[in-house]
Each structure stands twice: as C-alpha cells, then as structure tokens.
Specification:
The chain is α+β, with helices and mostly antiparallel strands. The protein contains 2 helices and 3 strands; from the N terminus they run H-H-E-E-E. The protein starts with 22 loop residues before the first helix and ends in a 27-residue tail after the last strand.
C-alpha cells in the first residue's frame, strides 16, 4: 500500500509497513521485498505516477461491456501519452476481455531537443560567409 498517512489504526502488528520517499523508492522497496517474484501495481493516481516515472514494464486491462457516463480515469491524471505495444496476451472470458500490453520504450530525447524536459540555451546561429 502506498500512503502519505501513518500506519492505520488496528493494523496487524506483524504486518510490515515501510516509509519511503516517493514512488521510485516505493518500487525499489517492493522489488527488494518481492525478491524474484513479480511486483504488481494498481492503476489510479499512484499507478500514473509510477508509469510516468518509467517504472512500469507491462499494463494489464480487463475490458467489460459497460460504458460509464462518468468516473475516474484508469491511470488518474498523467503527464502525457505513454504508448503501449500491441497486446501480447488476449484472453476472451465470459463477459470480459483480458489484455496485457508491454510498455513501449522509446529513445529519450536528447538534452535540449524538442520534447525534452531539459532545455539548454540555444547556441547562436552559424554565420554564413
């Protein structure tokens, strides 16, 4: 569980509770605790932060035939598009479609390039003689 609050009242005394600084540290701690097992993260605002940090390898979605008129976004608010590969797992269930997508890794823009978050002062235009 990721939370900004202290251990909840009534938390089982033997259940672990770890305080870390940010989602990247939370994922590091989860990997440490999981050992060789897989770390799974729910969607929502925390999932969005972890996806934006580039720490998600795969996204699983279950699609059901219902269209809602309102609700929360699957990944909460996020900072832009996060392209996924074509689904590598497609399982047709009874009234549900289970999909799994690898997160597309694209080369990070060069420092100062359009789309990068790190800007540098542009160098002067070359002088033509």
């Amino acid at each position: 569980m990721v939370s900004h609050r202290p251990r909840p009242e009534g938390w089982h005394p033997e259940a672990s509770y770890h305080f870390v600084d940010g989602v990247a540290a939370a994922i590091d701690k989860a990997h440490e605790l999981a050992g060789e097992r897989t770390v799974v993260v729910n969607a929502g605002d925390v999932g969005s932060q972890i996806l934006a940090a580039g720490l998600v390898d795969e996204v699983a979605m279950d699609v059901v035939p219902v269209v809602f008129g309102s609700g929360k976004r699957y990944f909460g608010s996020n900072d832009g598009p996060h392209p996924l590969e074509d689904p590598h797992v497609v399982v047709q269930g009874d009234g549900v479609l289970h999909l799994r997508f690898k997160v597309r890794r694209w080369p990070r823009p060069r420092r100062g390039a359009p789309g990068s978050r790190c800007r540098r002062t542009p160098s002067p235009a070359p002088v033509r003689r």
